[in-house]
Amino acid sequence: MKQDSTLGEGLHNFVDEATIREEMARFENPEPGRIREILAKAREKQGLDPEEAAALLRNKDRDLDEAIFETAMHIKKAIYGNRLVVFAPLYITNECKNRCAYCGFKASNKELDRRTLTSEEIKREVEVLEDLGHKRLLLVYGEHPKLGADWIAQTVRDVYAVTSAKSGEIRRVNINCAPLDVEGFRKLHEVGIGTYQCFHESYHRPTYEKLHVSGPKRDFLWRLHAMHRAQEAGIDDVGMGALFGLYDPVFEVLGLLHHAKQLERDWGVGPHTISFPRLEPALNADIAYNPPYPTTDHEFKKIVAVLRLAVPYTGLILTTRENSEFRRELIEVGVSQLSGGSRTYPGAYSDPEYDRPDVQQFCVGDSRSLDEVIRSIAGDHGYVPSWCTACYRLGRTGEHFMELAKTGFIQKFCLPNGLLTFKEYLEDYASPETKAIGEALIRKEVDNFPDPDRKHLLTDRLARMEAGERDLYL
Ligand code: SAM
Ligand code: SF4
């Protein structure tokens, strides 16, 4: 029998439809004065209640929408500075027993070549990713009974084992896989995963049950309680998400916020990250071509901005589902992590045979190489790309991380550490053009660094990096 959390008996559907409807109804047509009050509260970095988030999302006044974006930019700058964490997804298997109406990997898609990477193939993929400069990977899995927690744990070990004198190593492996029981999560914790990530897709239960046609994923509550079980197993960085396009986006944002609140109540810490994939066309997934609730770019940007205000200390993740132009706008209003140079088919980094749009899980909107993405982050935005993993490796995770984040720690540690990883990237992996842009940005950041003691530590380590040392952090 599946083992739910020990909290299981007390756990329920904490994302209650009637409560969310009530919160949505309360601000059918929000007063401008009320919107300004909510934005003033958000500026205090105290987060927002679900009904306040609903009011911002339901606002129709374009000028006030601009004020929402401006406040989100302010919070983003105040908490995260100009740093952006970079990662790549690594698809390990596309074998799947579920029939999610929107996904190209669904069991009923007979046209898809199914592939599960062997240890040797994982090694080849990781070598390519390391040679590009990646240090943080998100491993992605379909759900299949023959591929359980022990096997997933082994794939994590396989990834961490790939190191080379030339290109270093992967320093943080995050996981996006189907929910496990507590024992299963414990196995992942033991092999040193960073964040456990799982998207609830739709918090609206009737929609969820309609779109998950068959397979274990049909069990709404098993998935809803996954983060609780992960916490119980010792994984204190958990990542949530909803798939936008399946149901009313306001409902989904409120679902995410209720989920986050329940985690805070039960574990003292909310989600480490939130993702907001938007439905993309996928092979033989009709619904993905005709989303029941298409989300416009403006609505989507507002979702990102409102999440930034509602959960200011939670990382917001943007994937290559969105195109490069729009990614720029979303970064400004709150995104703190993004993927680059992604492939969404197992084996596609090392084997060009699988690097074709027709076999990917969904269509990638930003197909630039990692080097191009980094050049644009640094050159066009003046943002510092970061591969930093210092907190995780020093045990600053979960509740501990959140407490630190609230005391300005991100600026004190994350920015210098981000600069050090950027320097490492420029030394070892960047094209000459990217290197020139990056070095100029590092010089500017060092010149403007406010704390003289830390500036000294930073310049010392940057010089040591140039002399050949690696993996230095504060
Ligand atoms: N099988 C695991 C699961 O479903 O939780 C994890 C892997 S699944 C490939 C990762 C995520 O991809 C899903 O949670 C879903 O949100 C997203 N996804 C699936 N189909 C998509 C599509 N057509 N467009 C955008 N995202 C999609
Ligand atoms: Fe399988 Fe996940 Fe795709 Fe659903 S979303 S079909 S569970 S891979």
Automatic annotation (TrEMBL):
Enzyme Commission number(s) from the entry: 4.1.99.19
The record's annotation in SMART domains points to: BATS
Domain named Radical SAM core is located at 80-321
Sorted alphabetically, the keyword list is: 4Fe-4S, Iron, Iron-sulfur, Lyase, Metal-binding, S-adenosyl-L-methionine
Q: Which cofactor does it need?
A: [4Fe-4S] cluster
| EC category name | lyase
Check the record and name the InterPro entries matching this protein: Aldolase_TIM, BATS_dom, FeFe-hyd_mat_HydG, rSAM, rSAM_sf, ThiH/NoCL/HydG-like
Question: What Pfam families does UniProt report for this protein, alphabetically?
Answer: BATS (PF06968), Radical_SAM (PF04055)
What GO molecular-function term can you cite, just one?
A: metal ion binding
Q: Which PROSITE patterns match?
A: RADICAL_SAM
Put simply, this protein is called: 2-iminoacetate synthase
- Organism name: Pseudodesulfovibrio hydrargyri
Q: Where is the organism placed in the taxonomic lineage, from the top?
A: Bacteria, Pseudomonadati, Thermodesulfobacteriota, Desulfovibrionia, Desulfovibrionales
